[in-house]
Specification:
By secondary structure, the protein is an all-alpha fold. It is built from 15 helices and no strands.
Length: 345
Amino acid sequence: RAMTHHPTPLKFLGPGWFSVVMGLCGLSLAWVRAGTLLGDAAIGTALVIGILACGAALALALSSLVRWQRYPQAWAEDLSHPARHVFLAAMPISLILLATVLTALTGVTPWARGAWMLGAVWQFWVTLRVLSLWLDPSVGGNKPGATFWPGITPALLMPVVGNVLTPLAGVTLGFDAWSAAQAGVGLLMWPVVLALLLVRVGVVGLWPERLLPTTFISVAPPAVIGLASLQLGAPTLLAWVFWGVALLFVSWSFRVFKRSISQPFAIPFWGMSFPLAAFAALTLRLSEQSAAWFQVLAMLVLALASLVVAALALATLKGLRDGSLLAPEPIAVISPAVTAEGVQA
């Protein structure tokens, strides 16, 4: 069914759109890991996906710059929105991941070092900004949870725990000390955010239906921490610990998969892409010294992540064509769910 395009579509191009870059970068890195099992064909696939990620990042960066110039109020609303402000982290995370892909495919280059440094500093600033909002006297106030709980969704893991991504390329680029230090911030805040998510479900209810796909973001921290620990020289057994935790969150997230995809496609759907790709990358990394059955499992996980990203890419192109994406968001994204029972089955 054809839809009417909004007269100012660029106004609705929020930072969350950079989750497309995150998903493509994650899948590219997963295919790099598959090179051990599949050889040059996997590396070639990783290169193609990496080029697509760079193209998407460039297009989004230029579009975001134009949006900032034309619609500064829309940008300000994104930064002050109780739920959407956390998606700002998708921008520096994309930069860190692009540097990681570049390093994995071409080695140490000035471009990779520059992108990584900018992304790492930017990500640290975003983390500080989000955490500083918790100290705002207007949070809570006379209306407990009025402005606090809407922001407690799995997407909060991006700005607060996203720092664990830095060692993936940072160690190779020569920033091992700072990578470890910044990853420590993510390690510290990971259980804090998990506790807040559980409390939110008990006190306010599940996050809005439209944000259900972001439940998969819970898979990313343990998967990335497992990969980062190997980069930092930790024992392989420790990576297996985090793989087990990631497997738990994969199984948990798939409990809402059917409900997630039963609604109209929106950009939050891309919240499924990078976590699954990161889990595939860790599984492939561990499969290098594992039994044949685990290598088969690793390939199946890679196939799943690839199918999900391909489906998301096609749905995004269709949404851009029919005008269903760059349009005002439903109120459901702004208002928190009141009760778990209020969510449609």
